Amino acid sequence: MSSLRLHSIDLLATMTGAEIGDGALLVRDGWIEKIGTTSEITDAADESVDLSGHVVLPGLVNTHQHLWQSLARAVPAAQDAALVDWLMALFPLWEKLTPDGVRTAGRLGAAGLALSGCTTVADHHYVWPNGIRMDDLVDGVAPVGVRAHLTRGGMSVGASQGGLAADVLTEREDAIVDATERAVSAFHDPEAGAMMRIAAGPPSVLSTSAELMRELGALAREHGIGLHTHLAETAGESERCVAAVGAPALPYLESLGWSGEHVWFAHAVHLAPDEIRSLAGSGTGVAHCPTSNMRLGSGIAPLGEFLREGVRVGLGVDGAASNDSTDMFAEVRQAMLLARVMAGMKGMGGIRHGSAGHRLLTARQMLRLATAGGAEVLSRDDIGTLAPGKAADIVAVDLDRLRFAGQHDPLAALVLCGTAHVDQSWVHGRRVVEDGRLRTVDVDELTAEHRARSAELTA
Ligand SMILES: [Zn+2]
């Protein structure tokens, strides 16, 4: 039994609607037992932490990432390329990826996310050359101490069959299914409080056959795991899908069993209104990745329409080859700003410039997407909010910083002023960030190792 009391918190935002001044939390064995004000929660605890001057909120949930891509940041040939050319520029580097590279990139990517307030990351891994296995990614991520949902993806349609990737990056379809089942039996924890879960999903509808997509859909239901892929990221991708299979990607995937609360799609930029309603109706989730969409010139996902129609939405940082930061709080800010750009462009929300009374999407709405929203997208009811019975995934930001000076609303300031990193974080009650530094891994050593692994991709 271990207990932790956090107290004297300037503002405790539970993301259930409550914002508590002079707040306090009692955590026992990784679970929140009590929440209230400092004067209400006076229990003795093994460890007591004074968080005066801090805002506290649930740890952020990143619903879409490719951790290995931290080895390929700011690659010249991919810097100014849109999606297809970007992929073609990067595939030759990824062909050289090794088990050590995946391990190191997984650890460094998760470390960067943890420093930016992320306590749960959903990683989408779909390249397995040179003997890479899911074990390598697990070995990389686990020591950082964040929760991980690892998608075992895979491509079966290579260049020789009209696909984009070289054949060396593809696998046989039965091998993809076998590796997914093996990852589930080795690493998937279905219990509440799970630190590791496995999901299934190729990178896109055109990278595998319809038979494999159907088989993975059935496999996900059989094992009770998540199902994930990129969807309608660019207009060109949507056109290629119609040409190849005779239907837009979403109805095609739905016909193969890809819908429901265990399914979540990254991007969903180019969807028709009836497709958005279909997502809402089936409870299928979206990982909204605004920075990546801007970086690759993919378009603007209709976030306001998702929210109006009741689609489950979380935020995704996406891989560091298309972001190129690995910064979860930055994504919250980008999501808010991009939604406001779209409001101005389309008159969304009734905006008519020169008239009064518009409401734009708020900082609080974006923080909700990044916490409770992400938890819903990953089908988790044990994280994403702070309440008795929830896992103690908690982040704290010190307001006594130059960037926050003059703020009049501490919670909104985290988004409006921008939060470079969190000062403290706990995952399941275990300290991950302390005074702005990672407590779980040696960042200097990791960065040096990562530099060497990154150089291997262009050697
Ligand atoms: Zn992605």
Automatic annotation (TrEMBL):
One Pfam family cited in the UniProt record for this chain: Amidohydro_1
Domain Amidohydrolase-related: 55-430
Molecular-function GO terms, alphabetical: hydrolase activity, acting on carbon-nitrogen (but not peptide) bonds
Record's signal peptide: none
InterPro entries with a match to the protein in the record: Amidohydro-rel, Metal-dep_hydrolase_composite, Metal_Hydrolase, MTA/SAH_deaminase
Keywords of this entry: Hydrolase
Top-rank taxon, per record: Bacteria
Coiled coil: none
SUPFAM superfamilies per record: Composite domain of metallo-dependent hydrolases, Metallo-dependent hydrolases
UniProt xrefs under NCBIfam families: PRK08203.1
Record protein name field: Cytosine/adenosine deaminase-related metal-dependent hydrolase
Taxonomic lineage from the root: Bacteria, Bacillati, Actinomycetota, Actinomycetes, Jiangellales
